[in-house]
Design a protein that fits this description.
The complex is a heterodimer of chains A (464) and B (151).
Chain A (H helix, E strand, L loop, with lengths): L1 H6 L5 H8 L8 H26 L10 H10 L3 H34 L4 H17 L5 H15 L2 E2 L6 E2 L13 H20 L17 H23 L4 H16 L12 H16 L1 H7 L5 H12 L8 H4 L1 H33 L3 H18 L4 H19 L5 H23 L6 H4 L1 H24 L1
Antiparallel strand pairs in A: 1-2
Helix pairs in contact in A: 2-3, 2-8, 2-13, 2-16, 3-4, 3-5, 3-11, 3-13, 3-15, 4-5, 4-11, 5-9, 5-11, 5-12, 5-15, 6-7, 6-18, 6-20, 7-18, 8-16, 8-17, 9-10, 9-11, 10-11, 13-18, 16-17
Chain B lengths: L2 H24 L11 H22 L17 H37 L4 H22 L12
Helix pairs in contact in B: 1-2, 3-4
C-alpha cells in the first residue's frame, strides 16, 4: 500500500498515513503502528518509480530523482535507473535500521533522566532546526511554526483546564486533532493544486529490458549510495531534516564531489543512487527521536505520533520498557518490509506503470472521498470534516503564497509538549530561567539554539 | 514587490493581533506562575514581529514584481471553488440525509468535473459509495453518518 501511495502523484506519505488511519482502528496497536510505518517505508520506495518513468515525483523526497532518473529512462536505461533506486534504497534502509536498533535503546535509557527543562530546551532546539532547515524562506518557515504553535493551544489549558480560543464551540474543547489538519494540508490541498492544473500525465513508453543494473552502473553508483546513506542517516535524526532534505543535500554533495558534474541532469546514475539511498536511510533513522524522546523529527512522523496516541501508546523513553512489542515490532517489521519491498518492487513495476495510467478524473474524486472519511473517522464527527476542508483551503493558499506547511504540522504536534515543559520548568524554578543553565543537556541544547539564532544575525550585521 | 508576501504578512499580523488580545483576557500571569494566556501571548507577539520583518523586507524590495492575480492565470480555479462548495454543502447535508445519499451526490459532482458521461458518473458514484460504505461501515466498523430517517 505504501508503494502504491508513493507511486501515485498527488498524495504523499503524510496525507496517506492520515487518510488510511481508519484502516488501523480494528487492528491491535502494534499491528496498526507497523502498518503505518510500512506505508511510510513503502512510499519512500515507490516515489522513485514516477520520478523515473513520468518525471513526476510520487512524493517530495523523490523530486530530485526526476532530474537524472527521467533522463536515464529517455536514454533507454529506465530499468537500470529503477534497479539502482531500489537496490540503493534497500541497502540504505537496512543500514539505517541497524543504526536505529543500536542507538535507540541506550538513548531511551538516557532520556529517562530528562525532566521538563531538558525537554523544553530540546524542543526549542528542534523548532530552530525546523525553521533553519526549511526549503524555502526561513522567515516564512518561522511564521508557519509559530502559527502551528498557536493552533496547538486551541482547547483546554493542559494545567488549569481553562478553555482557550474555543469561542464556545464544544468540538474545540479537546483541541484540534493532527489528522484532519494533515489530511487537509497534505491531502485535499494537494488535490486542489493538481485539479486546477489539469495537465495530462505523459508516461514515457519505454521497454524495461532488465531491472538489474550492469556492473558499470554499480561501479558508478557505489560511493554515491554510501555517501547518500551517511547523509540520510544523520539528517533523518535532525528535527526538520528527514527524507526530503537529505535527498536534496545528497544530490548536491554528489554533484560537488563528482569528477564530471556536467553529467548531472543528463542521466547520471549517481544522481539517482544518492538521493534514493539518502531518503530511505533518513526514513529509518527518523524513528530514533520519535521512539526514544517522543519527539517527531519530520512531518510524517508527526502524523505517526498522532496515530500512536490514538492507539493509546505514548512514544518516548518509556516505550521500550512499557511496550517492547511495539518498539521491536516496528524495527523487526521494517527489516522484513525492506526485504519484501526489494523482492516485490522490481517485478511489480509493470503494475505500478498501469496504476499510473488511472485518469485523474477518477483518481482525484476518490482521494477526496478518502480525505472525507479519514477526517470523519478520527472522532466519528462531521466537525472534523469541516476542519479538514478549512485546512485544505489553507494548504492550497499557503502553496500559492509559497509557504511550506510542514513546519506548521511539526510545531502543532510539538506545541503541547513545549508548553507543558516550559510552564512546569518555570513553576519548578519559581520563575527563574537559571533552571535551564543548571542542567547539562538543557544548557547544551540552549547553547546550540543561541548559536543557530545568533550566527545569521551576526553575519547580517557584519555584512551591513 | 512580492504582493504574496505583503498580503500574507498582513493576514498573519491581524491573526496574531487577534490572538494577542484574546490571550490578555485569559491572563498571562508571571514567570513564576504562568497562566493559560502566557504562551499564546508570547507566541503571537513573536508571530507579529516575524510578519513585520517579512512585510518590511518586501515593501522596500522593489526588484521583484509578483501580482496576486497572476497566481490564478490560465488555471481551472473554478473547479476548486466547486469542490470546496460541494464539500461544505456535504458537511451540512450528511447528518441530515445520511452517508449514502450525501456521498452519492458529492461523488456525482466530483466525477462530473472530469467531464464524464452521465451514466458513467452515476455508475462510478454508486460504486464509490457502496464500496466505501462496505469497507468502512462493515469491515472496519466505523459508524458512518446515518440520515434522520435512520438509514
Amino acid at each position: 500500500m505504501g508503494t502504491l501511495i508513493g507511486v501515485l502523484p498527488g498524495i504523499g506519505p503524510v496525507g496517506a498515513i492520515s487518510i488510511l488511519l481508519p484502516l488501523t482502528f480494528q487492528l491491535p496497536p502494534t499491528g496498526a503502528i507497523i502498518m503505518l510505518a510500512g506505508i511510510y517505508t513503502g512510499a519512500m520506495y515507490g516515489g522513485s518509480t514516477t520520478s523515473i518513468l513520468i518525471n513526476v515525483p510520487g512524493e517530495a523526497a523523490s523530486v530530485v530523482t526526476c532530474l537524472d532518473g527521467y533522463q536515464m529512462a529517455r536514454q533507454g536505461q529506465a530499468g537500470a535507473a529503477l534497479g539502482i533506486a531500489v537496490f540503493g534504497s534497500f541497502l540504505a534502509g537496512t543500514i539505517g535500521l541497524i543504526g536505529l536498533q543500536m542507538i535507540a535503546e541506550p538513548l531511551s535509557f538516557l532520556a529517562l533522566k530528562f525532566g521538563p527543562p531538558e525537554y523544553f530546551a530540546i524542543i526549542l532546539l528542534g523548532f530552530t532546526f525546523i525553521i533553519y532547515l526549511a526549503q524555502q524562506s526561513v522567515i516564512k518557515a518561522a511564521i508557519m511554526a509559530l502559527t502551528g504553535l498557536l493552533l496547538s493551544m486551541i482547547g483546554l489549558d493542559p494545567i488549569t483546564s481553562q478553555p482557550r480560543m474555543t469561542f464556545g464551540v464544544i468540538n474545540l474543547f479537546e483541541g484540534l486533532h493532527v489528522a484532519p489538519l494533515a489530511i487537509g494540508l497534505f491531502g485535499l490541498a494537494e488535490v486542489l493544486d493538481n485539479l486546477e492544473k489539469a495537465a495530462p500525465k505523459k508516461i514515457l513508453k519505454v521497454k524495461i529490458k532488465s531491472l538489474f543494473p550492469r556492473k558499470t552502473h554499480w561501479l558508478q553508483a557505489k560511493w554515491a549510495i554510501l555517501r547518500g546513506t551517511a547523509i540520510g542517516f544523520f539528517m533523518g535524526t535532525l528535527p526538520g531534516g528527514g527524507p526530503v532534505l537529505s535527498s536534496f543535500i545528497s544530490y548536491g554533495v554528489e554533484k560537488r564531489v563528482s569528477k564530471n558534474p556536467e553529467k548531472f541532469g543528463h542521466g547520471a546514475v549517481e544522481g539517482v543512487a544518492a538521493p534514493e539511498s539518502a531518503n530511505n536511510a533518513a526514513a529509518s533513522t527518523s524513528f530514533i527521536p520519535l521512539l526514544t524522546l517522543g519527539i517527531p523529527p519530520n512531518v510524517v512522523l508527526a502524523v505517526l505520533f498522532g496515530a500512536f496516541l490514538i492507539h493509546g501508546i505514548t512514544p518516548g523513553p518509556l516505550l521500550i520498557k512499557e511496550h517492547p512489542e511495539v518498539f521491536w515490532g516496528i524495527i523487526g517489521s521494517m527489516y522484513v518490509g525492506n526485504v519484501i519491498l526489494l523482492i516485490l518492487n522490481l517485478p511489480l513495476i509493470p503494475l505500478w506503470v498501469q496504476v499510473l495510467k488511472i485518469p485523474d478524473k477518477i483518481l482525484y474524486p476518490l482521494i477526496i472521498l478518502l480525505c472525507v472519511i479519514g477526517a470523519y473517522s478520527i472522532n466519528n464527527n462531521v466537525f472534523d470534516i469541516l476542519i479538514m476542508i478549512i485546512f485544505g483551503l489553507s494548504g492550497y493558499l499557503l502553496k500559492k503564497f509559497a509557504y511550506e506547511p510542514a513546519p506548521l504540522i511539526l510545531a502543532f504536534v510539538l506545541g503541547p509538549m513545549f508548553e507543558v515543559n516550559l510552564r512546569r520548568s518555570l513553576l519548578m524554578s519559581q520563575g527563574s530561567f537559571s533552571i535551564f543553565l543548571e542542567r547539562p543537556v538543557a544548557l547544551a541544547a540552549l547553547v546550540f539554539f543561541f548559536i543557530m539564532v545568533g550566527l545569521p544575525i551576526y553575519r547580517f550585521i557584519r555584512k551591513k | 514587490m512580492d504582493k504574496r508576501n505583503i498580503t500574507s504578512s498582513i493576514f498573519f499580523i491581524l491573526l496574531a493581533a487577534f490572538v494577542l488580545l484574546n490571550s490578555l483576557s485569559m491572563g498571562i500571569g508571571s514567570f513564576s506562575n504562568p497562566q493559560p494566556g502566557f504562551l499564546l501571548f508570547t507566541t503571537s507577539l513573536l508571530l507579529m514581529a516575524t510578519c513585520v520583518m517579512l512585510f518590511a523586507a518586501n515593501f522596500y524590495h522593489r526588484n521583484t514584481e509578483i501580482n496576486l492575480a497572476g497566481l490564478w492565470t490560465n488555471l481551472n480555479w473554478h473547479k476548486n471553488i466547486i469542490v470546496l462548495f460541494s464539500l461544505i454543502v456535504y458537511t451540512t447535508a450528511v447528518p441530515i440525509i445520511g452517508y449514502i445519499s450525501a456521498t452519492f451526490a458529492l461523488m456525482a459532482v466530483l466525477f462530473g468535473l472530469g467531464g464524464m458521461k452521465t451514466w458513467t458518473i452515476i455508475v462510478s458514484s454508486l460504486l464509490a459509495v457502496f464500496l466505501s460504505y462496505g469497507l468502512f461501515q462493515y469491515l472496519l466498523k466505523i459508524p458512518l453518518p446515518r440520515s434522520v430517517w435512520a438509514f
